[in-house]
Design goal:
The chain is α/β, with parallel strands linked by helices. The chain has a domain of 209 residues: Rossmann fold. The chain has 11 helices and 13 strands. The strands form 4 sheets. It has a 7-stranded parallel β-sheet with strand order 3-2-1-4-5-6-11, with helices on both faces. β2, α2 and β3 form a beta-alpha-beta unit. α1 runs parallel beside α2 and α5 runs parallel beside α6. The longest helix has 21 residues. The two termini are 33 Å apart. Bound molecules: uridine-5'-diphosphate-4-deoxy-4-fluoro-alpha-D-galactose. The site of uridine-5'-diphosphate-4-deoxy-4-fluoro-alpha-D-galactose has 20 residues, from α6, α7 and β8.
Length: 337
């Protein structure tokens, strides 16, 4: 029996694949390489010493999905495939709704056709949005999304919940906070196309001299040092949460929404200073205007993950800074594309 990881060559998916293999699951990956490269799979195999069956497939295609589910004994699906750039989603909303919703719906339909129950979904803390006071708990009324990307996450959650209500699907919807870091081997990590939108890849690229300086988007937020506060979580901790979600679904029917965060907030300046201290490298930075759509502070209550999955984040902000830099130093141009 295998676990299908859609988007398995991406930042999240590749780390999930490592943790699944380390936990002795067989892994099948489906990825269309729109925002990832096949090389990442080779690196996962190098880390684990195990093979992955890989399909260069688009999971919005019923035919491709049928082939994957027929050629493999799939036990459950971890659905990481999708577009994820917030700014791009504002410029190309229809593309985001089409790709993200179609891939999720087609995957769930294929699961139904082939009698596969377990669906783990890469959701996001962005679904809480403006409506909810921090810290976020899973029972808050989500749906305050500020961009189409966030709405696709919200809608896919709804779709998966309704699918679970038919009794044919079990779903664990994981709301990620801010995943950063990289596998400690430095063989896999985050490799954004073009200029990074997110903070840690930008810091790492400044550290290796690929960018001149970091712009800090606003220092007049109502936070202790005025810069935005987020709940950064090491991608390896996050990936382990997916393995535990698979275990959980062996014993439980229905659906659950679960935050994956540390429960601690870190400001932009704190993260920059931690990176400089841990890696002994300067990060030149300037303060600029706030970025539209950004919230002052976001962090999780992570109790439900502990209660249901037995999961807690173990790695620190220092570990995240060390591992992000290690990956970037070893791969200054990412996977080289
Ligand atoms: N920031 C900077 N400079 C940068 C990039 C980011 O100062 O160059 C700041 C942001 O203003 C924010 C913090 O760093 O305060 C974190 O920003 P990121 O872009 O790394 O992360 P976000 O919290 O904005 O993004 C996260 C997820 C997305 C999700 C989004 C919703 O990564 O998937 O929350 O707002 F959609």
């Amino acid at each position: 029996m295998s676990i299908l990881v859609t988007g398995g060559a991406g930042f999240l998916g590749s780390h999930v694949a490592v943790e699944l293999l380390e936990a002795d699951y067989d892994v099948v990956v489906a990825d269309n390489y729109v925002n990832s490269v096949p090389k990442a799979i080779g690196r996962v195999e190098e880390i684990t010493g195990k093979k992955i069956k890989t399909y260069g497939a688009d999971v919005s295609s019923d035919e491709e999905l049928d082939r994957i589910f027929t050629e493999n004994e799939i036990e459950a699906v971890i659905h990481c495939a999708g577009l994820k750039a917030v700014g791009e989603s504002v410029e190309k909303p229809l593309l985001y709704y089409k790709v993200n919703l179609e891939t999720a719906i087609a995957t769930l339909q294929a699961m139904e056709r082939h009698g596969v129950r377990g669906f783990v979904f890469s959701s996001s803390a962005t679904v809480y949005g403006e409506n909810c006071p921090v810290p976020y708990t899973e029972d808050m009324p989500a749906g305050g999304c500020t961009n189409p990307y966030g709405w696709t996450k919200y809608m896919i959650e709804r779709i998966a919940i309704d699918a679970a209500k038919t009794g044919k699907i079990d779903a664990v919807l994981l709301r990620y906070f801010n995943p950063i870091g990289a596998h400690p081997s430095g063989l896999i990590g985050e490799d954004p196309a073009g200029i990074p939108n997110n903070l840690m890849p930008y810091i790492s690229q400044v550290a290796v001299g690929r960018r001149e300086k970091l712009s800090i988007f606003g220092d007049d937020y109502p936070t202790p040092d005025g810069t935005g506060v987020r709940d950064y979580i090491h991608v390896v901790d996050l990936a382990k949460g997916h393995v535990l979600a698979i275990e959980y679904m062996k014993e439980h029917r229905g659906y659950e929404i679960i935050n994956l965060g540390t429960g601690r907030g870190t400001s932009v300046l704190e993260l920059v200073h931690a990176f400089e201290r841990v890696n002994n490298v300067p990060i030149p930075h300037v303060i600029t205007e706030r970025r539209a759509g950004d919230l002052a502070e976001v962090w999780a209550v992570a109790d439900k993950a502990r209660r249901l999955l037995g999961w807690t984040a173990e790695l620190t902000v220092e570990d995240m800074c060390r591992d992000s830099y290690n990956w970037q130093k070893k791969n200054p141009n990412g996977y080289g594309n």
